[in-house]
Amino acid sequence: MNVVNILLIFMVLIIGGVLVFYMIKKNKNAEEEEKVVDEKSYTLDSMMDFIKQRLDEITKVNLYDIGLSEEELKRRKAKKYELRKALKGCTYGDVNDKKYVKELIYDLLYKEYGVNEINISKAIPFDIPSLLSAQDKFDIIIHEYKKDFGYEALTQMIKKYNLAELKYIEGESKPSYVITEKEIGDIYEKEKFSLDFSDKLNIVTQRIYQHYKGYSSIDEIRDMNIDGVSGRSIWSSRKLFKPSCTNRWRLFRPNFWTQSTKSLRQYLDILPR
Q1: In what order do the strands lie in the sheet with 166-167?
Q2: What is the pTM of this model?
Q3: CB-based burial of residue 19 (10 Å sphere; 0-12 exposed, 13-18 middle, 19+ buried)?
Q4: Does 218 map to a domain?
Q5: Residue 163 · residue 267 · CB < 8 Å
Q6: Which residue from 55, 117, 167, 221 has the fewest beta carbons nearer than 10 Å?
């Protein structure tokens, strides 16, 4: 009898040990999976997908089906109309509509998506300068300069760092007015910006907006008090244009932003196609 009891106890201990091991392994795998999902969910692409989905839901929801009071229904209808109008107007370059849409994107990211001081670095590595792209640095510079100079931000940056000078670029026989990737990096290092969470979220908001409803990498430059843009992109050589607009901007080979020698007045030259 004692032998049987010992065997039973031994078997129970083995089964218990296996179950404990299985549960620990399962929890560990779940934590790792959750961590991977969490890291992916705060990338720019994931945030953009969320914003597209939420704005689509907001503009298409049937307000009569959710049992609102007459006053609330009227208020929601007005907001819905205002958003639809802004989403349409911002594609034509209306700065007020752009501001309205960006404020909504900011609120959705912060209040609904849960972007905070920690996970925002999954989108743009603000705290690790060595990982910032030239686009990231340029966006940060323009954001900070706009605080003091508004739509003169680009002009002031060019004046301060004497960027409106002819330069010879490797692979080209003639000099051109160009702001290079290296110059953007040098400016970023010299300025030593200190960004708070609001600054970071505004920069992420602008990045999402410009690829969703704006004019991609030239979106902020387009709003500046300049004659126009001739951009050489460090990211792409494809033509960039909005289907709803008559103007196109051609993105050429590497180097950050170029200026046509024919238009020196505001440093950047527009190329309608």
Answers
A1: 166-167, 176-179, 257-259, 230-231
A2: 0.70
A3: exposed
A4: yes
A5: yes
A6: 117
Structural domain contains residue 131: yes
- Tell me: do 142 and 22 sit in the same domain: no
Q: Which of 176, 263, 255 is nearest to 226 (CA)?
A: 263
Q: What is the pLDDT of residue 64?
A: 80
Q: Are residues 110 and 227 in the same domain?
A: yes
**Domain coverage including residue 249:** 44-259
**How far, in Å, CA of 247 to CA of 242, rounded?**
8
> Whats the size of the chain, residue-wise?
273
Distance CA 217, CA 39 (A): 25
Two tokens, residue 128: 């690790």
Question: Would strands 248-250 and 166-167 be described as parallel, antiparallel, or unpaired?
Answer: unpaired
The reply to whether 23 and 50 lie within a common domain is: no
Token couple for 233? 């992109």
Task: Please indicate, yes or no, if residue 129 is contained in any of the structural domains.
Answer: yes
At residue 15, what is the residue type?
A: I
Residue 248 has pLDDT above 60, yes or no: no
Are 228 and 148 in contact by the 8 Å Cβ rule? The answer is: no
Q: What is the pLDDT of residues 58-99, one digit of tens each?
A: 998 888 888 888 888 899 889 899 999 999 999 888 999 999
CB atoms within 10 A of CB 53: 10
d(CA 157, CA 141): 9
22 and 115 inside one domain: no
